Task: structure prediction
Amino acid sequence: MIPTTARTLSDDMSKRVLSLERLHVSFFTDAGELAVVRDVSLSVSAGETLALVGESGCGKSVTALATMGLLDHPGRIVAGDITLGDDVISGFSEPQMRKVRGARIGMIFQEPMTSLNPVFTIGRQLAEVLRLHRGHDDRAARLASLALLERVRIPAALERLRQYPHELSGGMKQRIMIAMAIACEPQLLIADEPTTALDVTIQAQILELLDELQKDLGMAVILITHNLGVVAQYAQRVAVMYAGEIVEQAPVTELFADPRHPYTQALLQSLPGTVDPGRQLNVIQGTVPTPREFPAGCRFATRCGEVLSRCASDVPPASRHGGNHVFSCWQRMESTS
Result:
């Protein structure tokens, strides 16, 4: 399945908004350190959508939370830099990060039903963001909140300001979350599985809304998803994550046309429409190892059908295929060298 609707990058996307350089995140438990994210490097530019793809539990959300400075104890960044614009925010204090969150980075969480405060009205929650980051007084915050609800196409917006989250549908709540995330027109929007809890029709509406808002505001967007159909339609670049590592990065059309890493190939072959009619869908054998069971080398080694002797012990370096296609695989590196 090669995407035909993915947009190409334009000249105004050259300004890099966010860079992660060799990010390592560990959780420190009574049983020892668990290295859940290892050596993650990626970047996203203004006006660009980068899709971060992988199975549940692969580290996508942990990477996003680390970027936002929202890692809960016992997790922490142990190495690497997170750079937003000209600022290395991985070294920011919590008061500094509070000024970044909402103002420069917006985030849409995957569960809108639990992301809104059930005891405050929608209007109060929106106004709080505007007062905190834009210094609005009560009247200005109310007017801006109303404009935000109208911008995300919520009907009867004035009435919604007076309602509580439990009075709204799942799609409405997600639109509220989008309104809060873009309230200060951030440089970067992180959308973590933004359509997970919604039915198919509403999913499409939410994704179209995000796409439209990105074009209007020129934001960089990191779209966290496991849905490769969504990636094909809405992203320009994609980073494939497995067991806490980025195993492949490429422009969307290149990745679909010529996947280099065995895990990426297996993912694409397991999708309906990517195999010959009459054949069974491909199954990736085995299960994702837990952080306590990660191999010292390539973390896909325990499930790979093309494993070499060195894969379990040696971390494969990043190899470049063409200009912007990067993958980490000993077998592929040796076969193309």
